[in-house]
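step=encode ok
step=design start
structure_in=
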């Protein structure tokens, strides 16, 4: 059994088998039934797509560019899903990777004075000023709705239709100089995002391992079959 099944319970493709869910468990409490190709499937059979958008500071643009960005965004809103939501997460800035990189530079630096400057940078920036900084991450959230008209009313076709909507957003927002991220492993991206939202404090000190969906584990005596 995969960690995904243990966290989110049964697969939407098989409503006859309940996996990793028992009374009072986290799985029973969560409204999420599964994650399929980057789409969240809820227990009431809604299909929700979440995409991350890299922002642009419009106030640094020229007046003409600002007007072009506003016009392009207005054009997207006209064809965007009816239930589109724009979500913003505010969190403490992650300085761990920066500190690790600077320490690797220090380890390979032969000049003693340069090493001292790097260490000073780590203390003042990595562990000092930047440790108190915050960052913002922006997301578009929308769900499958009847007007989207998937080719067939199947999980695969609905997921494909939502992917088309994400690609449409990517095209329109590119004209706004906004980049819609396309993670290589969408399921991992969504699982990590939900983990960080549900476990705000724990996720700051304990990250999910890379490739978590590929993990084979033994929990409560349950083994991967096959």
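sequence_out=
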């Amino acid at each position: 059994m995969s960690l995904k099944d243990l966290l989110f319970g049964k697969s939407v493709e098989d409503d006859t088998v309940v996996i990793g869910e028992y009374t009072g468990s986290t799985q029973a409490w969560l409204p999420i039934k599964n994650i399929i190709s980057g789409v969240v499937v809820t227990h009431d059979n809604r299909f929700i797509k979440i995409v991350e958008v890299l922002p642009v500071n419009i106030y640094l643009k020229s007046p003409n560019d600002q007007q072009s960005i506003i016009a392009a965004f207005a054009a997207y809103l006209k064809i965007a899903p009816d239930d589109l939501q724009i979500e913003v997460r505010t969190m403490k800035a992650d300085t761990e990777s920066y500190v690790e990189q600077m320490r690797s530079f220090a380890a390979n630096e032969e000049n003693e004075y340069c090493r001292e400057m790097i260490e000073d940078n780590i203390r003042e920036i990595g562990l000092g000023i930047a440790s108190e900084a915050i960052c913002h991450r922006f997301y578009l959230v929308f769900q499958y709705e009847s007007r989207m008209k998937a080719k067939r009313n199947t999980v695969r076709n609905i997921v494909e239709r939502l992917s088309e909507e994400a690609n449409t957003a990517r095209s329109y927002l590119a004209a706004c100089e906004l980049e819609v991220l396309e993670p290589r492993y969408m399921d991992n991206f969504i699982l990590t995002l939900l983990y960080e939202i549900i476990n705000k404090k724990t996720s700051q000190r304990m990250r999910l391992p890379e490739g978590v969906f590929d993990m084979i584990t033994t929990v409560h005596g349950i083994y991967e079959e096959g």
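step=design ok
step=annotate ok -> The longest helix spans residues 155-174.
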